[in-house]
Amino acid sequence: MSSIRFQVSAVLVLLAGVIILLPDARQSSGELNVPGMLEAMNESGQYLSVDQVARMVVYEDTSILVVDVRDQDAYRAVHIPGAINIPVSDILNPDWSGYLNDPEIHPVFYSNGNTLAGEAWMLCIQKGYSGSLIMTGGMNEWYRVVMESTFTGGRISAADNATFEVRYRARDFFNRMNSMPDSMKTAFLEVKRKKEEELVGGCE
Amino acid sequence: MKKYLFLILTVLIVVLIILALPGSKSFRLSGEMILEQIGQNTHIISVQKFKELKIGVQEVQLVDLRGTDEFNTGHLPEAINMPVESLSIADIHRFFKGQDADCVLYSDATYLANKHWVLFRQMGIENIFVLETWPALDSLIINWDSENSRRIMVDEDPAFTFQPNSALTF
């Protein structure tokens, strides 16, 4: 009788030990805890360069969603084409989780610098929205690299040529989109898409 | 009957152990609480503010979050090193428990230190701040004594003005 008792309690204690020692990086609700966050912060690949984002914007890459985390006034004045506006103060609002928690789409946060985007990233990652990314340098870097850089030097290499081609197209897209009143933006995007479909063409 | 009592007691102990466990691993502060603190905008302090604090009654301690090698190459005066990437959670708790003064974190860039500020605050560590080191930490280390003009959140200042081009045709 007492041996059964002993066995049962031994099994239960073992079970408890296993549960405690399990390397759990997540709480039951899917949110990350401290070890999970430390791990996520040390991972590489959470940053995208301005050039990478420019390429994705120009080719309308649907695997990312550019998110402007500055306030509404700054967003209205000027923003990267295709970006949606979620101010940092509103980032935990569950209404946005459809955008931020989509497993197939990576949200790319940007602000004027890095600070606000970093805060938005921290809050989203710990909420369990894996796949969030940061555009390093933000709008200031975008202006310096995409809007104002020009090629200086003798002969241009193929790789440089591709980079500057993308920058030029991103610059043009950015200028046109931001110069336009809001009411015209959707119409412009439709025209742009149709023109590019014509260009791609094909044999019949 | 006695057997069941024994079983129930064991299960209770197990449940208690599991409940006591999250103390070190889960966050003390929720994301919403951190957001509130970010909104107050007092966590990032400028070099000038830091120097004022240092002269005043309040004790402040600079904490370098970079790796040991980088720290040994050059760091801000009177800073102590906490290589955050190689430390465990218990180490971090122990480090801050041993500090009496307010801790001011800095790293290669303001946003890197700020990320760790969010994490440490959520772990329940109080009286910590972030030093604004924009644009470059290296130049700040060299010019520390003469540096007095930095402001808060320079990183987020827009360095551009957009001129809508009304001559574009579509």
Question: Any overview of this molecule?
Answer:
The complex is a heterodimer of chains A (204) and B (170). By secondary structure, chain A is α/β, with parallel strands linked by helices. Chain A has a domain of 106 residues: Rhodanese-like domain (Oxidized Rhodanese, domain 1, 3-Layer(aba) Sandwich), CATH 3.40.250. Chain A is 54% helix and 8% strand. A five-stranded parallel β-sheet of chain A has the order 1-5-4-2-3. In chain A, β4, α6 and β5 form a beta-alpha-beta unit. The mean pLDDT of chain A is 86. With 170 residues, chain B is of the alpha/beta class. Chain B has a domain of 116 residues: 3-Layer(aba) Sandwich (Oxidized Rhodanese, domain 1). A five-stranded parallel β-sheet of chain B has the order 1-5-4-2-3. In chain B, α7 links the parallel β4 and β5. The longest helix of chain B is centred in the first third of the chain and has 19 residues. Chain B is extended.
What are the SSEs and their pairings?
The complex is a heterodimer of chains A (204) and B (170).
Chain A lengths: L1 H20 L12 H9 L4 E2 L1 H9 L5 E5 L3 H6 L6 E2 L11 H4 L5 E5 L4 H12 L6 E3 L2 H10 L10 H22 L2 H19 L4
Parallel strand pairs in A: 1-5, 2-3, 2-4, 4-5
Chain B lengths: L1 H19 L1 H4 L5 H10 L3 E2 L1 H9 L4 E5 L3 H6 L6 E2 L7 H9 L4 E5 L3 H13 L5 E4 L5 H6 L28
Parallel strand pairs in B: 1-5, 2-3, 2-4, 4-5
